[in-house]
């Protein structure tokens, strides 16, 4: 039995995490949930959206599933997501993007993985203001860049992927992105069996829309990886289908890419597939591969039934209809 920290989060978070818990019961997954609250609902009591007991739970269990947590824009508390990634040195953000048969999208041949460096770049949050001038400091280190490069190439090798594409803007940011590329190239030389290429971020964005089938594993600094993974999610039907894993040396936190969507909270129309797909990654991480494949197949079968799908996927269903349809394929 594995104990996994469960953070329901804000907005639609409690709704979609409850779906995961119920489906895991039907899977008979050997997982015990350690439920801890974080986000807006605990600020008044603890003065922070991330109380110490959340940190303690993750430190103890080493694995967590997290619902979306609201990040104030332009004011207020720093992102809980970024804080957790830095606290546990979750240096690799893994975001698979794969077309699902049956969905009405413009693409049916997308199968790529964005590997995003997760601990530095502009997400360090180093900013200052002098009079009417505001500045942000972008941090890129050789050690972090080499670390994410090894992660990307090892992932490609272990998952029989054939190519790694490094994304940069070294034509303009010659020092920071230049250092990033230098580190990636060094590691690429150690994997001669894997094709390696480099793309400037603006060209990469265009190519990803024009020819997504040409990309396999994409490795990028923090900001570029964040933007590209959202762009890629749009190719397959939106963020409601986009899972993510934040992986460190001995700790991992799994979450949906999308936000807390407070505008549809408690209306019963939230789409749980992104978080369910993140929980598939969690099962694989725990080496519960048969259960992961079973859930993956159930989701693949479910999305072919438009009547069961939520409005964001073009359906007329709700969170209950998606849940029940997935469970029917598990029985």
Automatic annotation (TrEMBL):
Signal peptide: none annotated. The keyword Phosphoprotein does not apply. Gene3D superfamilies: Isopropylmalate Dehydrogenase (3.40.718.10). One of its GO terms (molecular function) is isocitrate dehydrogenase (NAD+) activity. One of its GO terms (biological process) is tricarboxylic acid cycle. It comes from the Bacteria. InterPro entries: IsoCit/isopropylmalate_DH_CS (IPR019818), IsoPropMal-DH-like_dom (IPR024084). Its EC number is 1.1.1.41. Keywords: Oxidoreductase. Residues 3-326 form the Isopropylmalate dehydrogenase-like domain. Belongs to the isocitrate and isopropylmalate dehydrogenases family. This is Isocitrate dehydrogenase (NAD(+)). It comes from Petrotoga mobilis (strain DSM 10674 / SJ95). The lineage of its organism: Bacteria, Thermotogati, Thermotogota, Thermotogae, Petrotogales.
